[in-house]
Predict the structure of N-acetyltransferase domain-containing protein.
Amino acid sequence: MDTQLIYEVPTAKDYVSLRLRSGMGSKDLERSQIALQNSLFTISIYDKDKLIAFGRIVGDGGITYVVSDIMVDENYRRKGLADLIMKELDNYFDKNTYEDSYICLIANNPADLLYSKHKFEYLPENKCGMLRNQKSSDDNF
């Protein structure tokens, strides 16, 4: 494996391809390009010219930050790549955020085990996390 870390936004085509190879599902190519260009920070890992792992931070750059799209190609798992991505994101947070910054993520199990090694904790009992239902109101009847 000939890997290298790149701190540049990958192409939308590579991003969507990795989403599929990591089991995260497809996304629209045009909207993916917009999303990638609006990232605060990205880390990509390539094996030669193939994107095999990726992670990014989105947010306002002042108060709120969201860890997003941590993914590793299924054929490259269990090699420490997700942990390496998280270490790079940790470095960004250490240099660019403050004690009162709001840093969050939504994780699928068992990825929460990875994130707990990088200062992420479950919400306390007096707080809750929520997702907005994006289905049209017609779908609710």
In short: The longest helix spans residues 81-96.
